């Protein structure tokens, strides 16, 4: 604790800074602390995106992407204005900070930022339908125990 106080005093002497106390909110990321650890989520960020795209009361999906769909650059008709697609995918990219469950899908969608089609936009909106059923999800960082990364893969 002593070193933290010293570091803060040094930084304040070099820069105009204000100590706002314990972290509760970082742009788009909510931080809930407990003795067990920290829970990071972007619940409000997800709800705001769903409201922006008028997808609050949609029927949620269990998967962010159809597992049988292979997206290509040629499929579908090219969007006249790619900006709405680019903005949506950009927001989804920021959401992957606390939602690794959508990382692969967002990675695939981001490949088509330069020339998106109506099919790509439909797939991006499918991610929103998936998110509508899981707004509370996030990442839990335990205060005790070692960090352990687990991943699962269905080879089919």
From TrEMBL:
Residues 2-65 form the Reverse transcriptase Ty1/copia-type domain. Transmembrane segments: none annotated. This is Reverse transcriptase Ty1/copia-type domain-containing protein. It comes from Chenopodium quinoa. The lineage of its organism: Eukaryota, Viridiplantae, Streptophyta, Embryophyta, Tracheophyta.
């Amino acid at each position: 604790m002593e070193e933290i106080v010293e570091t803060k005093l040094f930084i304040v002497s070099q820069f105009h800074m204000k100590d706002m106390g314990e972290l509760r909110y970082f742009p788009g990321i909510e931080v809930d602390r407990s003795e067990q650890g920290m829970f990071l989520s972007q619940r409000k960020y997800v709800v705001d995106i769903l409201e922006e795209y008028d997808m609050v009361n949609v029927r949620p999906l269990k998967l962010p992407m159809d597992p049988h769909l292979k997206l290509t650059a040629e499929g579908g008709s090219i969007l006249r204005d790619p900006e709405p697609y680019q903005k949506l995918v950009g927001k989804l990219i920021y959401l992957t900070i606390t939602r690794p469950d959508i990382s692969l899908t967002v990675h695939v969608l981001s490949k088509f930022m330069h020339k998106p089609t109506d099919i790509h936009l439909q797939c991006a909106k499918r991610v929103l339908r998936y998110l509508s059923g899981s707004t509370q999800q996030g990442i839990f960082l335990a205060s005790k125990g070692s960090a352990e990364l687990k991943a699962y893969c269905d080879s089919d």
